[in-house]
Amino acid sequence: MAYDNFVVQRDLTFDIKPQDIFIIMGGSGCGKSTLLKHFIGLKEPAAGRVLFRSDEAIGQDGSEYVDFWQTQDSKRQALMQRCGVLYQSGALWSSMTLAENIALPLGEFTDLSPSDIKHLASLKLALVGLSGFEDYYPSEISGGMRKRAGLARALALEPELLFLDEPSAGLDPISARMLDDLILQLRDNLGCTFVVVTHELASIFAIGNNSVFLDADSKTMLTTGNPNDLVSNCESETVRNFLTRGEGG
Ligand SMILES: Nc1ncnc2c1ncn2[C@@H]1O[C@H](COP(=O)(O)OP(=O)(O)OP(=O)(O)O)[C@@H](O)[C@H]1O
Prior knowledge:
Blueprint (H helix, E strand, L loop, with lengths): L1 E2 L2 E2 L13 E5 L6 H8 L11 E3 L11 E3 L5 H8 L2 E4 L11 H12 L4 H14 L15 H12 L6 E5 L7 H18 L2 E5 L3 H7 L2 E6 L4 E5 L2 H7 L3 H7 L6
Parallel strand pairs: 3-8, 3-9, 6-7, 7-8
Antiparallel strand pairs: 1-2, 4-5, 9-10
The structure holds adenosine-5'-triphosphate (ATP).
């Protein structure tokens, strides 16, 4: 991964499996957000591939994987429609109500009637515990509720994969915990796979069952695996220190 000649990370290899809650972790500036951009179509790798498994076996070589950045635009578009994204800020349109925010992707990418869209928007809000808030504007609800509304919008097109950038940033510990519970619920009830950039150790242990650790100094990954195992078993002291806030492990 590079910005022009500035290499951020190299030699990253890891698998994200269906229904994983996969955490991208590492210190500030190691390249977590940059890695996320490679998954959601915002940045092309300087070298290497991002492979998505596809049941339709539409890979160029007949394999079950599609090379995201090499495939045709139409197939890339189809892959992107399997993905939902929650940006750090929540990125809701402030001039639209919550229901209108969720209706937006539904209007753009489906042939549903306005009344079906309205109904679906309410259903998505109910999924994240925001029933009855359809007509509220983002400025009229709390930060935690805005994150949940952002998640409802990310869920609008029923994605298999959800990418979340620092979902609990700026939330108090209780709201952060509620968001973690919601992520676990959505994984269990809808079967979604999550890829989450987060610094929050409590979240990493509560929701993560798989992860990659990016290191800014060596500019490569130090490990991949379940953070709950890595905290005591990882060979890398840097990783153990990170997961124990330098308090041993
Ligand atoms: N658009 C850009 N152009 C040039 N360099 C960039 C750009 N975005 C990020 N970088 C650099 O790439 C490196 C990785 O940045 P990135 O935001 O991916 O890290 P991060 O791990 O998400 O950081 P943080 O935890 O602080 O949010 C940093 O050195 C950053 O300065």
